[in-house]
Specification:
By secondary structure, the chain is an alpha+beta fold. Helix 19 packs parallel to helix 20. A hairpin with a 5-residue loop joins strand 18 and strand 19. The strands form five sheets. Strands 17, 21, 22, 23, 24, 26, 27, 28, 29 and 30 form a ten-stranded mixed beta sheet that branches. Strands 13, 14, 15, 16, 18, 19, 20 and 25 form an eight-stranded mixed beta sheet that branches. It contains 23 helices and 30 strands.
């Protein structure tokens, strides 16, 4: 086991199957046993979005508290006394019977009645014993699964370091020594072989770069070992940029409140995914490589410290800046003592009628174990005393997640829900003295774990895991700064959380619920409303006639999603000449017209194939529901590859023309087919009927649905088979041009830049003199501006009203002297998961006007007259949003909105068509 002081959290020693598998009996109620004793019995897990989800949900107004459990008045939604036993190393496993009895296993199985004199029937005893055995079997299975996963991960890590091509699959009979293994080891070996076979079929590893091109940290002789920035710190730096917008008085006040909520959601996701994933890997013993050269324990320590500083800054921003500025605008967020007497009286009645019936106070004593605290739930820690006996007790009261986070006491006057509950604790604990109370909040691991066995039903496995993952170990504890040491020590001990992950903050906690404030109908306190342009596809012509004549480039949200991308699918479903529709769905909304159109098409007899990614983080349950609905309608639903996420965004429509020939109409995008986020995410999409693209997409869909093995495409780069190597080839070509003294240039826009092979290629291109402009919204591990390494590289970030989400990769100057330069758009970020573990897609743009538009967008973001953040070689981002006189610089997104809304050509923009041109042609000095 890892020692307590090794940098891992103390609770990892108690995680099932991660280290000492001989102590499985001690971990029982970490698994299915706890699932029945949780305080969140009904409802699915609160979801954590990946990559972009936290910002999207908060920006769309859904960043409040996702419904995590249902609360029924008087139903005892919380686990009652004695229903949530803690597993300890000495007491052994415990199981909880539904009838309220508790079974404790010490030296056998002994049952103890809850009420004195109550006898247990032999049948109930047998049932409890059977239930305990089933739980033990489930724990054994899960622990074995962890072992197998760790073994496979180590094998893959070793393969990546030594292989110069993809992993090979050797038949069972050819494995040396396999026949001599015992049953359990042979079973594990066979499963490892089966997984590797499936991986090879899916194309994994076909794009692995040789060791010289895909470096191990510090192994490249011509590049310094400290050339990579730390990923965790870079993620937090992105959250810091969001927080800076919440602090900016030039941003409308309700938008600042929204950014405050977005930051809170993003920090939750960071702990649930990145911090939790690092702890889990350290606990299991998987390799934890650090390209920054820092030790894993040092990275964890730095991460927790930086997150602590940002969390404190976030809390002070709310209290010291937002609350006063809201009050100045006529919107008040008050604490209980600040309410007027008649407002308190109103809340007394509300508490009695609507809140009190759903509360379940849980006291802790020798007969009542400490209850399980679900992830992201807000609670009150209460110390009470019995005036007759003088006994002091700890109790927990959960703040119901289905009630509003901030209660309206009068128009534009709000109070936190926990304040109302705290003011009525004497009602909850009648006859006892309430000594103190403090709010606290727990963050737990929320990284999805599925044993993707070749023979296992992935859909059913995912549904089971969604129910389990609410009960993972705690990775963060937030408490009010007023909490006493006695109560805090109690929480740390019972929750088994590392003291380094305890954050003392001024209340109120959990500001994700500020969405209710931002949704107020106060247009004067928000960004000005705008209507997306609908001219990308002429409304008076058939979409198929338009695309038969020319390609159409759509820029969301400035162009209308409904009038372009959605129109293609809806028109295809209604057109009797359309024979087939093939579609990938990664995320969509609950009221998606695209899904309805696919169902209509299937019911009309068209062949409809939908590749649904049911493992899209945060949308698993919604995607499962839509997948089943599509199947019931007669659509052919495919769940993608084993071990790969299908992240590419594409639609293929096969239509019979008047002359009897077949024509394919395609859409390739950088964003999801989600009508709500299409108003919040910045994305590009290409609509085309180019025969080459149609053939490529047909081959790719055949690969997704039938495991065909095409490796070469005409206008596409596809991960994991060739996307990384394709981009590196483009970078190398520009490097060679620069060495020959010819014009060269590289422009990239993406959400994250982490992949070491891509970064090293960019470093070498910079050393050759290639001017490189990188527009990275979030995480960036490249150090720009380092003498002798990256002097010609500039990195910018734009964070604002819309979530920058498109990916653009442009090579060459775009002029007559370098007419062969290529421009690509698609779904892939420059991350390991995108290039190695996802099906991603980039398409080469061929229309010269489209290429010019995409290049000019990056030019505009790099312009010193446009507001942005500039990355320095030390990893710090410096905001440039004011000129020398203090006047705000150009807001890129508002600039683009004006282009779409203005019928007249801008003298600094494109003539006539309103398309983007940079205000100034930014160039390297």
């Amino acid at each position: 086991m890892l020692p307590v002081g090794s940098g891992s959290f103390r609770h990892i020693d108690h995680y099932p199957g991660v280290l000492d598998h001989s102590r499985l009996g001690e971990y029982r109620d970490m698994d299915s046993g706890r699932a029945r004793t949780s305080d969140d019995r009904s409802g699915a897990a609160q979801s954590a979005d990946g990559g972009d989800g936290a910002a999207a949900r908060a920006q769309s107004g859904n960043g409040t508290r996702p419904a995590g459990s249902s609360v029924t008045a008087g139903s005892g939604a919380e686990a009652g006394a004695g229903s949530g036993p803690r597993a300890t190393a000495k007491a052994g496993p415990r199981a909880t019977a539904k009838a309220g009895t508790r079974t404790t296993a010490k030296a056998g199985t002994q049952t103890t009645p809850r009420a004195k004199g109550q006898a247990k029937a032999p049948g109930k005893r047998a049932a409890a014993q059977e239930r305990a055995e089933k739980e033990q079997a489930e724990t054994d299975r899960r622990a074995a699964r962890h072992q197998r996963a760790a073994a496979r991960a180590r094998a893959r890590a070793a393969d990546r370091q030594s292989a110069t091509a993809g992993p090979s699959f050797t038949p069972d009979s050819e494995q040396p020594g396999l026949a001599t293994l015992d049953g359990a080891r042979r079973y594990q070996a066979e499963r490892d072989l089966a997984e590797r076979a499936a991986v090879v079929l899916a194309g994994v590893g076909q794009d692995l770069v040789p060791a010289a091109g895909r470096p191990v940290p510090g192994a490249s002789g011509d590049l310094p070992p400290d050339r990579f920035l730390d990923r965790e710190e870079s993620w937090l730096r992105f959250s810091q940029r969001v927080l800076e917008l919440a602090e900016d008085p030039n941003v409308p006040i309700l938008e600042r409140v929204r950014f405050e909520s977005i930051f809170s959601s993003a920090l939750d996701e960071f702990f649930m995914v990145r911090v939790a994933g690092r702890i889990r890997r350290m606990a299991i013993g998987l390799p934890v490589e650090s390209v920054s050269g820092k030790a894993p324990d040092q990275i964890l320590e730095n991460t927790l410290s930086m997150a602590r500083d940002l969390a404190a800054r976030h809390a002070r921003c709310f209290i010291d800046r937002l609350v006063p500025d809201l009050a100045a605008a006529g919107i008040e967020i008050l604490r209980w003592k600040e309410l007027l007497p008649d407002e308190q009286a109103k809340l007394h009645r509300l508490f009695k009628d609507r809140i009190y019936p759903v509360l379940t106070p849980l006291a802790v004593d020798p007969a009542h174990p400490f209850p399980f605290i679900s992830g992201l739930s807000l609670s009150l820690a209460v110390m009470v005393a019995d005036p007759r006996s003088g006994l002091r007790l700890f109790a927990r009261v959960k703040v119901p997640p289905l009630l509003p986070r901030f209660l309206t006491v009068a128009p534009n006057r709000f109070v936190p829900l926990e304040d109302v509950i705290a003011a009525h604790l004497d009602v909850l604990f009648a006859g006892l003295e309430v000594i103190e109370h403090h709010a606290f909040r727990v963050t737990r691991i929320r990284d999805l774990e599925i044993d993707e066995d070749v023979t296992e039903n992935l859909l059913q496995s995912l549904e089971r895991e969604l129910m389990r993952r609410r009960f993972e170990p705690a990775v963060r504890l937030e408490v009010e700064e007023s909490i006493s040491d006695e109560v805090l020590d109690k929480l740390i001990t019972e929750l088994d959380v590392d003291p380094r992950a305890v954050y003392r903050l001024p209340g109120p906690l959990d500001l994700t619920g500020l969405g209710a404030i931002t949704d107020l109908d106060r247009r004067d306190l928000k960004y000005p409303a705008f209507v997306p342009a609908e001219g990308a596809l002429p409304a008076d012509r058939s979409v198929f006639k338009t695309l038969a004549e020319r390609d159409v480039l759509v820029h969301l949200p400035y162009d209308s999603f409904t009038a372009s991308v959605q129109r293609l699918v809806v028109s295809a479903a209604a057109d009797p000449r359309v024979l087939a529709i093939k579609h990938t769905l990664y995320r969509t909304s609950g009221d998606s017209e695209i899904v309805d159109a696919l169902i209509d098409a299937a019911e009309a007899g068209k062949q409809v194939v939908v590749v649904v990614e049911i493992k899209a983080r945060g949308d698993e349950e919604a995607n499962i529901a839509w997948a089943r609905k599509l199947e019931e309608a007669g659509c052919h639903v495919v769940y993608g590859f084993l071990g790969l996420k299908t992240h590419c965004k594409m639609v293929l429509v096969v239509r019979e023309e008047a002359d009897g020939s077949l024509r394919r109409f395609c859409h390739i995008g950088t964003g999801n087919y989600h009508p709500k986020t299409a108003r919040l995410y910045e994305d590009y999409g290409l609509l085309t009927s180019d025969p080459q693209v149609g053939e490529d997409m047909t081959d790719l869909f055949n690969h997704l649905t039938g495991y065909s093995r095409r490796a070469n495409y005409r206008r596409l780069l596809v991960a994991p088979a060739g996307l990384r190597s394709g981009l590196i080839k483009q970078i190398d070509e520009q490097m060679e041009l620069a060495r020959q003294g010819k014009p060269a240039r590289i422009q990239m826009k993406c959400n994250a830049l982490i992949d070491e092979a891509i970064i090293d290629s960019l470093y070498r291109a910079s050393m050759a003199g290639v001017p490189i402009d990188l527009w990275v919204r979030g995480i960036c591990s490249l150090r720009p501006g380092v003498p002798g390494l990256s002097e010609t590289i500039r990195v910018r970030s734009v964070v604002g009203r819309f979530l920058e989400h498109s990916r653009i990769y442009a090579f060459g100057t775009g002029g007559a002297d370098n007419s062969d330069g290529e421009v690509w758009i698609g779904s892939a970020d420059l991350m390991h998961r995108n290039l190695d573990r996802r099906v991603e897609l980039l398409i080469r743009v061929t229309d010269e006007s489209h290429k010019a538009e995409l290049r000019s967008l990056v030019d505009l973001a790099m312009d010193p007259g446009v507001a942005s953040w500039w990355l320095g070689p030390d990893g710090h981002w410096i905001r440039h949003h004011l000129d020398a006189g203090g006047t705000p610089l150009i807001d890129l997104q508002e600039h683009l909105i004006r282009f779409r809304q203005s019928p007249k050509p801008d003298p600094d923009g494109a003539p006539g068509d309103g398309r983007l041109r940079p205000r100034h042609q930014a160039r390297h000095a």
